[in-house]
Write a structure and sequence with these properties.
79 residues; mainly alpha; 0% strand
């Protein structure tokens, strides 16, 4: 046998051994298969802040004051 044939056989054997190792590493201790790649933690996007401008807050405040005034009016009219 020549040296190049021996080297190619050894490389093929190394490839088979590496595949076997990867397959075994994919198994969990209890024998259940796991994914080959480790799972990455999902990063949640940063929570969005309120998008009200100063003018929007003022308009909302005025609308709510008007709403509460109407409710007070209805409550006193029922009494």
């Amino acid at each position: 046998m020549n040296i190049t044939a021996i080297v190619s056989e050894l490389k093929a054997e190394r490839t088979r051994i590496e595949r076997a190792i990867k397959a075994l590493e994919g198994l969990s201790p209890n024998g259940a298969a796991t994914s080959a790649r480790p799972k990455q933690a999902k990063v949640a996007p940063a929570p969005k802040r309120g998008g009200l401008t100063a003018a929007g807050r003022k308009r909302l405040s005025e609308l709510m004051k008007k709403r509460w005034a109407e409710r007070r009016k209805k409550a006193t009219a029922k009494r």
